Amino acid sequence: MDLELEWITVVGVSGIGTSHAVIRVKHTRENAKTFCTEYEQDQSEECVDRVLRETRLNDQLEGNCESGWFISLYGERLRFIGEAKHRGEVDPKYIILRDRRPLDGTRTCGRILEK
Predict the structure, then answer these.
(1) What percent of the chain is predicted at pLDDT more than 70?
(2) What contacts 85, CB < 8 A, 6 or more positions away?
(3) Please, what is the Cα angle at 110 between 112 and 101, to 5 degrees?
(4) Cα 35–chain centre separation
(5) Which of 42, 55, 74, 97 is a plausible cystine mate for 79, CB 3.0–4.6 Å?
(6) Is 55 left (phi over 0), alpha (psi -120 to 50) or beta?
(7) 78-107: per-residue pLDDT in tens?
(8) DSSP, res 91
């Protein structure tokens, strides 16, 4: 299950701008409820329980702000290149590489949380 950054809670940040930046997160029941209501259009407790049961995230995102390399909340090694200079209306705002290829922005999930 993919989640946008606004559907998790950031509980700590350290080292931003350094070679060892860390963002610690927690996925709460309230986050799951927001996801169900806003994205799934489902206000049931069953949806909340399912999202909590199925969502598998690391509890922190680690990155090297100097090189652009980071480990996503799903454990993938990605590289932040920067803002896209020539983008169309539906193109992603930032260029992030996985396996030397840019993520194309077609998934629901935010690019930093790309599964």
Answers:
(1) 84
(2) none
(3) 60
(4) 14
(5) 97
(6) beta
(7) 999 988 888 777 777 888 888 888 887 654
(8) S
